[in-house]
Design a protein that fits this description.
The chain is mainly β. It is built from no helices and 18 strands.
Length: about 270
Amino acid sequence: MMLVVITTMLACTAPTPDALDTSWTLTWSDNFDGASGTAPDPTVWVPDVGGDGWGNNQLEYDSDSLKNAALDGDGHLAITALKETVGSNAYTSARLTTRDTFTHGIGRYEADIQLPAGKGLWPAFWLLGTGIDTEGWPICGEVDIMEYKGEDPGTSYATVHGPGYSGAGGISDGYDLTDGTFADGFHTFAVDIDPDHLAFWVDGDRVQTVRRGDLPAGTEWVFDGDWFLILNLAVGGNYVQAPDDSTPFPATMLVDAVRVYDRTQAVP
């Protein structure tokens, strides 16, 4: 496992909310280097264990087993969903979080991920506000950098949730590949969180920009605090169709790297 803290400055250009800018300093990353079958760094990635549906009627039991989350020996984290029964859950998978290990505020959050195709598969790379314990959801804020429906493998989604714009009412937009699917290789998913906007990207193309003024009237901007990271592969749930005999298991979400940046210059 290689966890990297870097202070190298990237080349700077004048940032705008609608164009990918490079005015960032990489301050933290995990490249998932390590032996095959070993756990991702336990001082960073902690399994959320449970099978109660996570408020979305998900069907999987998320475990702390290496069968469901382990390094593959080629520099990737493999989160694997299996068709196996644990209690009332017909599937197992994993949900890894930095809730008690690493948090960050204003910045860029980015990951290189290859996604599995298949009906009912629901991988995600997302952030929750650290106020989840004291304020609850959605007041804490949620930033879904990447969500994806395995039955629609050429499209990914970026969404923000807050009080008055959460759940099915979250502010969301999709990104369609012009060729192939997200299962064909790795793609880079990112969000820039600045004081007055969030900009979402796939492979350097803008998915959407959400500004303070875009929020529904009378609602609150809740994106100024600190965040923890979550990587997970759900099976079934409110967001996707139910898996069936066509769904391939094992199904694996491969993560090549996760990176967090600070801005090297203020947004004009």
